[in-house]
Design a protein that fits this description.
single chain; alpha+beta; four-stranded antiparallel beta sheet; two-stranded antiparallel sheet; 11% strand
Amino acid sequence: MPDTPGLPLRGGDLVYRQRRPVRLWHWINAVSVIVMLMSGLMIFNAHPQLYWGQYGANHERPWLEIGAREGSGFLRIGAANIPTTGVLGISGGEELAFPALVTIPSSYDLAAARQWHFAFAWLLVIPGILFWLWGLASRHVQRDLAPTAAELRPRHLWRDIKDHARLRFHTGEAARRYNILQKLSYLGVLFGLLPAMVLTGLTMSPGLDAAWPWLLDLFGGRQSARSIHFICAGLLVAFIIVHLLMVVLAGPLNELRSIVTGWYRLPRETER
């Protein structure tokens, strides 16, 4: 039965769950983030070391390094060395930090990677700002994403964590709303990871540093900004993996219909 105002909702009902601006931003953001991640890995391949501070290469030892030595690939984080031959450092007989399979372009080309990265940065930033404005003006953020005091109680949080670990997802009318873990993760990406990636990306531009020197102070130097940029990208990849896993486990066809058409069938209690 479709969503009818005034009638109580139950498992099996078809409800309008995702509004058009949410769906549109979701897919624009998905494309731009994937392209920026893949082109960013190619940019990283040009200098696969990360530092803290302002100067980097000739002044400090990198805290993270991906490379090859004596025919073997390795990942070094601090004092820990991890063999990565065939995955990182060396893959397909080519010595690159990240293999061609996950980079844009697939062959080493720093100039082209930067063009891809900067072009899709506009597709990330402009729709993102418009989505912020719409989300606040329409009260989507306040109504649908802001956690309630009850949801933030440790007991409620812990119960939701245990339910997700046991693959016990919400059913019936409760499935129409975001749960507390979804709210916290979406808010973290929307107002944390994505803005941090944009600001640290701007900090790596010498021209913008000259115009806005406060960026260097904010992040503790250009090399620190590069490290934070890389860490945020890694956290975003982790979010995407978990997000896709939850979609598959919760019912991919129903979830996809929701984010494509807006309509979602509430899971019945017996389906979980």
